[in-house]
């Protein structure tokens, strides 16, 4: 389960019509708005872009530190604001909230009354007594399986613990969820399993009311949407600094088609919430470097799933020895002399005129698919006139969101495949 770095926070915004439709639609799409964009309700003209970026990178490096922490439900990250906030409507009549949409989380939860312990949030806390469709789930219910537990009240309970000690605890319940769409026709899901949090604390931001889990597990909202969407969703993230909405799509709207689409399998491990790809090698220009490092515990063959793809991790993180080979070859391929690096990114260059044309194409060779990265995806502006290589050494391997920008990325949870296509996301 992840909470995503604050600099890349986006919002999914909706228009709720008076007569929502039932969940019979085969596909729908939702806008994503960058937190620091002028389109964002949290836009702050006085905020420093580069300071926010550095904070984001520090959280990106932190998030991988406890992926396999032995907790009932655990998060690899600190509880800072997430990359995407998803506006959801919960209950009957619907109450609206902004929750972090996270591909590395399995459980959807929001803060609930009675609030034994809650952090401050901008919107009123959800009151189950105001909803005619709220129903706590008993311990005997089908949904109450590991990592959920039976509470003293004979209701199914959950406990989420994050890497910085932040946590949420409460009841598992069924409730009606409403999602707005870009078409203007809201989609109503009448019985969604979610966490009603009565004890929540730590470093959660007041603009965040909870989490929407989009991960690879039975608890995920994606799997709960499967009757409507057939287990398919996609996203297309615009490059940084563009004041244009990104988009997340579900069902038939999420199917990638046309020339240029490439597909690779994804794999499931324990815990079953991350999306693992099989990375075979990485090319820098014409030089190919094999990836043979085992970075994740697995009950599969060693070659099945050796890197996580994550929309919430900013940087691409690679095992130290392998990363060093990539960095060394990258430096050899560029005639420019590196300048002083950053705390989070060691390899930086002066952004002289024509520098970006010197940057070699880096290709990640996954099973059956080649993901080509140009300067947009590999060089990050850390300050005026300074570009840094947007990958870093780490104990675990994670393919981050900087490398996914301007790509349409689609997940098929039924076929267990991930597809991608180079796309101008500002026009998608």
UniProtKB/TrEMBL annotation:
Question: Is Transmembrane helix given among the entry's keywords?
Answer: no
UniProt domain Peptidase A1: residue ranges: 84-421
- Molecular-function GO terms, alphabetical: aspartic-type endopeptidase activity
Q: Could you tell me where this protein is found in the cell? A: Secreted
Q: Which residues form the active site?
A: 102, 310
Q: Which GO terms describe its biological process?
A: proteolysis
Q: Does the keyword Signal apply?
A: yes
Q: Where is the signal peptide?
A: 1-23
Keywords, in A-Z order: Aspartyl protease, Glycoprotein, Hydrolase, Protease, Secreted, Signal
The GO cellular component terms are: extracellular region
Q: Name one Pfam family in it.
A: TAXi_N
Q: Which CDD domains match?
A: pepsin_A_like_plant
Question: SUPFAM superfamilies of this UniProt entry?
Answer: Acid proteases
User: What family does this belong to?
Assistant: Belongs to the peptidase A1 family.
Which PANTHER family is this protein grouped with? ASPARTIC PROTEINASE CDR1-LIKE, OS07G0603500 PROTEIN-RELATED
Q: What is this protein called?
A: Aspartic proteinase CDR1-like
